[in-house]
Structure formats: C-alpha cells, structure tokens
Amino acid sequence: MTTTEAVELMVKTMAPYIGDTMARSATEAHCQRLGIAATMSRDQLDALLGKLGGGLNIFLGRDKSAAVIAEVRGALAALEGPR
Amino acid sequence: MSGKGRGEALPWVVLGLAVAVFVGWAVAPESAFYTRVLPPIRMLQLAAVLKLVYLLAGAGFAFACRDRLEADNPARPAWLLLSQGILSMFAGQLCLAPFQLVQGVTPFPSVADIYFVLAYPLLIASFLVFLNAYREAGFPIGSLAERVGIVVGVGIAAAFVVLPILRPVAATGGTLLERILTIAYPALDLVLLVPLALLLRIAFRLRGSHAGDVWWILLGGLVVLCMADVCFAYFQALGEAHLDPFVHTAYLLAYGLIAGGAHRQLQLLKS
C-alpha cells in the first residue's frame, strides 16, 4: 500500500471527529516528521498511528481515540487483504 | 426527529426562546408585553436565574469533561481551568442574584466584580493550555510567524475598535474603582481575544467535525462575552441604562453558548 492510499484512509476515518482539513494536515505533518516517503514500513505505520492516536486523545479521550485508531487499522487491513 | 435528537435540541430551543424574549425587551421595552406581563424587574429576575443556570451548567459540563479525560491527558488541566473560570463567573452572578431577585437592581461595583475579574486569568490560562496541548500533540497551530501575525492583527483590530469606545468610558465621572473596573473588563477581553484568535484558527481547521462543533460554539460564546463586556462598560460609563436589555441578552447568549459547547464536548467524550 502506498503512503498516499494509507493517508487517504486515515483522513477519511478521522474526519468526522476532527475534520478533513485537520486530519489531513496532522497526518501529513506526522509523516514528514517520521520521514515517511512514498511507501511506509510496518514500524513507520505503527509510529504514525501512535502519533495520530495521541492527538485524537486530546479531543476524544483514550478509549474513543483507541477505537478510532483500531477502525483505521481495520480499514488498512481490509485494503491490504485482497492484494 | 428521534427522542434523543429532541432531547439534544431542547436546550438550544430554550436558549433561542430566552434570547428572543430578551431581544424583544431590548427592541420594544415600552410594549404592553414588557410593561404588564414581563416588566423590567421580572426580566431582571429572569436574566439572573437563567445566567446562574447556564453558568452552573457550563462549569459542571467543563468539569465533567476534565473528569472523563485520563490523568496524563494534556487537555485535562485546560478543561479544569475552564470549569474554574466559569465557576468564578457563577460566583460573581450569585453575589448579584439577591439584589437582582429581591430589589431589582444590579449594584456596581460590588463584591461580584472580584469573581468576574478572577474568571479572566482562569479562562486565558485554560486557552493557553489548550493551545499548548494541541501543539504538543502535533496538530498544526501555525508557525511562530503566523502566530505572531495573528496576535499583532488582533491587537491592531482591537485598538481600532475598542479604544475609541473606551475613550469616553475613561473620561466619565464615577469613583476610581468604577472607572478601573469599567476599563478592566474590556481590557481583559482584549487579552482573552489573543488566545481566542489562535484557537479560532484551529477551529477553522476542525470545521465540519464533532470537535469543530465544540470549538465553534465555545468560541462563539466567548466572542459574545467580549462584546457584552465592551457594551457593559460603554453603557455603564455613559449612564445609558435603557440599553441594559442588550447587555443582558448578550451575557445570556454568551453563557448559554459556553455551556452548550462544554456539553457538546462532554457528549463527544461519552459517545
């Protein structure tokens, strides 16, 4: 899966909670800080989701934030599945 | 609309009706409705009760938000400070309530002003903690240059709008304490506007989301609060008592929106 595809999926899942603009800018900023390029490794993906979860935590609390990140992981797995 | 939807809409309908009644009073104070059914003393009593209810609800909702967040959540102290700020305003309003409910007057200055003034550092600290929490969490709150630009922009805009309004306030008579307080409220609002402007930038990025709704409602309430303070200072200093209904309307709307924003955040945390 490419970084672009993963980012789109993350943004789509987080948008109802923090908005499309904030979800996109936060995800892209974290990608840049983590040195994620066109493709991302499993470790980078975990680090990125950890950062996004920490950010969501501020708005949603730990449980809800964990649920949203789990939703992202599920969606990413579903996207990878058929390949 | 579902039962839950109706339950969620009801407080907003009540706030809308209350604001409409007070706007009516401000626009047509000589009408039969506001001279016979709801004369000024009744309106003042109604305003006192509604303000107390909204402030207590707002403080309670904000504290419940703090309570729902984990001990290490950086937004937790911000919600606590917001709760304390609203509670301080409630204490101020509570000091005024006996005079407003029994005698139909609002003493100024009074012990209530201690609590109203105390609310500002708490609110300002709350918003600074929110901003810091968002920055630490990696949310884009703007570069240093952008933030300085916003602060300078707010300062210039405030200087152009508020200073001409405050000039006659400062020049009027009254005791030294009266003059200090009538200038202190709008001045504190100017300081409050700085973190609010920075949060407004974040709220703009959050638009169309649950968190965005929370911030648009909260910030709306706080902007109306600033406007109410400026109007209060202006009308108080110039002795324009007949314009008091506008001030009551603005405070009522501000407190209602602040309580509504905190409630929306609590719903988000509970969902």
Decide which structural class fits the backbone of chain A.
Answer: mainly alpha
Largest interface, with counts of residues having CB < 8 Å to the other chain, equals: A-B, 23 and 25 residues
CATH architecture tag of chain B: Up-down Bundle
Rg of chain B, Cα atoms, Å: 19 Å
**Sheet with the most strands of chain B?**
none
> Tell me about the biggest sheet of chain A?
none
Order of helices and strands of chain A: HHHH
Unreliable stretches covering 5 or more consecutive residues of chain B:
none
Verbal overview:
The complex is a heterodimer of chains A (83) and B (271). Chain A is built from four helices and no strands. By secondary structure, chain A is an all-alpha fold. In chain A, helix 1 (3-18) runs antiparallel to helix 4 (62-80). The radius of gyration of chain B is 19 Å and the shape is globular. Chain B has one domain: Up-down Bundle (Rhopdopsin 7-helix transmembrane proteins). The relative contact order of chain B is 0.13. At the A-B interface, helix 1, helix 2 and helix 3 of A face helix 7 and helix 8 of B.
In short:
The complex is a heterodimer of chains A (83) and B (271). Chain A is mainly α and 83 residues long. Chain A has helices spanning 3-18, 20-33, 42-60, 62-80.
List descriptors.
heterodimer; A: 83 residues; mainly alpha; 82% helix; globular; B: mainly alpha; Rhopdopsin 7-helix transmembrane proteins; 0% strand
